[in-house]
Amino acid sequence: MTASSVRRVSIVLFDGFELLDVFGPLELLSIEPERIEVELVGPRAGSVASSQGAEVVAPIAYAEAGAPDIVLVPGGAGTRRLVHDAAFLDWLRSWSLDAALVTSVCTGSAVLAAAGLLEGRRATSNKLAFAWASGHGGDVDWAPSARWVEDGDRWTSSGVAAGMDMTAALMDRILGDGAGTRAAAVAELELHLDADRDPFARSSGLIS
Amino acid sequence: MTASSVRRVSIVLFDGFELLDVFGPLELLSIEPERIEVELVGPRAGSVASSQGAEVVAPIAYAEAGAPDIVLVPGGAGTRRLVHDAAFLDWLRSWSLDAALVTSVCTGSAVLAAAGLLEGRRATSNKLAFAWASGHGGDVDWAPSARWVEDGDRWTSSGVAAGMDMTAALMDRILGDGAGTRAAAVAELELHLDADRDPFARSSGLIS
What we know:
homodimer, alpha/beta, seven-stranded mixed beta sheet, two-stranded antiparallel ribbon, 8 helices, about 20% strand, globular
């Protein structure tokens, strides 16, 4: 394997990001360190406070981050502010424009939509916050019932834990040899393999 | 609710802890901030590097940590060193002795066993590392097939993702009103509700 075939996932931290939206996917991605690098980028190099209070170190500031290969935007309480932060949204849009894949977990899809990165696409989001999230973007086809949605180079997942299912499917896709399914087995995680099966759409009243 | 009824979970970080062992449980516990406090303790106050490289801030050093209510020890590559670290094991044993509950995720049970905290108890651990983990402790009844094991005031889970199932069951127990099951639904996590159902015991060859 040549160095150039290593994929890089850049996870965008912000004040009030949701812990499991980041560390569920990161746990799975890190099981393939020879083929996937993960970097955490934040508003500044240093610690960033999660929704839950725990602080995580982002070694790279947004302004210093190189052109991304795969972008992952988590959800969390901080997204309520981010969707109105024009400077952040401008940075995210221009930084992500040439990425191979732009992905989100949970209410991270509201941020992608607010940045104009989901125009003309199908997407999903957290089911308890769906009414709020789906109010963002101009021409986004919001799916009220989906564990995750893949639409070309945009992948969006439902709430929190759904990000792990999407990540495993994405690893299977980009590495091509069942790597995501294997990573989940190492983490003793029973995956949801069907993107269209969404038990939380019903429990949240989005479908009857 | 009086302040004294708030439960406190102290999660023990160490160099080489496994991210999801910590942040899966923390995600669920944090959904009940009025009734459960979570604190991260580390070798020193400051950042601690996970198995995966990402660094997390532990605001409290071991030496400064108050008497714990509920202890949670995660697994990770760093446990291979910790089980030989006499000073750490001495601290963990004496600090945990009067805790209401002592719990672990994944290979964290090897650390509890090495500290003498599982003597005379039934326990489990990560299934791919089971042969190694179960070599620790003197008189521990290691269960090769269990999603998690509850034995009085000692709770131990199988690998990584199993820690979330154990945590939800523990929240249901200590809060008494289905709080863990509800937290999992908020996080869109489909729980394993049966402690004795362990699909990874078979796939790891521990049972036929």
